[in-house]
Amino acid sequence: MMREQFETTKLHKGNGKGFFFIGCDHDKPPAPTQNLLLAALPHSDYERLLPYLTGVPLMAGSTLHGAGNKENYLYFLVEGRVSRIHVLADGAQAEFAVTGREGVIGLPAILGGESMPSYAITSESGYAYRIESSRLKTMLEENGALVQLLLRYTQALMTQIAQNCVCNRHHTIEQQLCRWLLNSLDRTDTNDLGVTHEAIAALMGVRRESVTESMSYLKKRGVIQPSRGHVVVLDRQRLEASVCECYSVVKREYDRLLPEQFLKLS
C-alpha cells in the first residue's frame, strides 16, 4: 500500500459517511480575522492581503499537502484542525504538530524549502483562507509586519514540535493523551470532540488499546465522557492537572511570542 493510500485509509474509515470527525456548516463562512495571525496584522496590511485570500472548506481526512509535494498554497485556518503527520515506510505514522485558528499551514513555501517529507491532513473539519505561495512571497518583500508575525509563529511551532518529541519519549500514554485533548480543545469552541479512539491512536502513533485504557481511567475520574465517535471533556481543570509539563511549556511560548489575540486559545 502506498503511503498516500495508507494515510487516507487511516483517517477516512469509520462512521458511515467516511470520516472520523464532525463536519461544519458553512452557509455563512467565518471571517478571515477568525484566524489569529490575520487578526493580528495592522489594518492596512490586512487590507492589502484580503483580495488574494480564497475561502475553502476543509473536510476531515483531506490532504492539504502531500509528503514531498511542493506546497503551492498557504492555508490560514479559521475553524478546524490540521495535523502534520509523518508516515514511515512500513505504514506506521505519528502526528508531530497540530495547527488551528492560531496558525497557518504551508510555511515551507515561504521558508525556501517548498516542501516537507510529511503530510498536512485535516484532522477536524473546518474552514480556511488560502493564498498562493508565490503571491505571499512577493508581498512579504514589502510587508515587515507579516514577516515578523510569521517568523514568531514559526518559532512557536518549532517549540511545539520539539516538546512533542520529548513528551513522546519520556511521558506516559495517559499524559500524552491529556496533552492531545487539551491541544484539541484549544483549537475549537466546544468541549465535544468528534473523534474516535482509533483516530487518536493513529495520530499519537500508539496502540488503540492504550488509548482506550487511558480514556477509561480519565472517565472514572470524571474528566471526560467518551462515546462512539466523540469525547466530551467534563472537567478541564482536572484534565490540566493530569497532563505533563509539555502542554504548559508550549502554551507559554505561544503566549510569549505572539500577540494578545493568542490568549484566546486558553
Break the fold down into its secondary structure elements and pairings:
Layout: H1 3-12, H2 36-40, H3 43-49, E1 54-58, E2 63-65, E3 73-87, E4 93-99, E5 104-105, H4 108-111, E6 119-132, H5 133-140, H6 144-170, H7 173-185, E7 192-193, H8 197-204, H9 208-220, E8 224-227, E9 230-233, H10 236-242, H11 245-257
Antiparallel strand pairs: 1-6, 2-6, 3-4, 3-5, 3-6, 7-9, 8-9
Secondary-structure element series = HHHEEEEEHEHHHEHHEEHH
Q: Please report the distance between the alpha carbons of the first and last residues.
A: 40 Å
Query: Tell me about the biggest sheet?
Result: 6 strands, antiparallel
Structural class: alpha+beta
Mean pLDDT: 86
- Radius of gyration over alpha carbons? 18 Å
Number of strands: 9
Helix residue percentage: 40-55%
Strand content: 15-25%
User: Helical region count?
Assistant: 11
Low-confidence stretches: 1-25, 262-266
Plain-language structure description:
The longest helix is centred in the middle third of the chain and has 27 residues, at 144-170. Helix 6 runs antiparallel to helix 11 and helix 8 packs across helix 9. The model is unreliable at 1-25 and 262-266 (pLDDT under 50). The protein has eleven helices and nine strands. The strands form two sheets. Strands 1, 2, 3, 4, 5 and 6 form a six-stranded antiparallel β-sheet that branches. A three-stranded antiparallel β-sheet has the order 7-9-8. The chain is α+β, with helices and mostly antiparallel strands and 266 residues long. The termini are far apart.
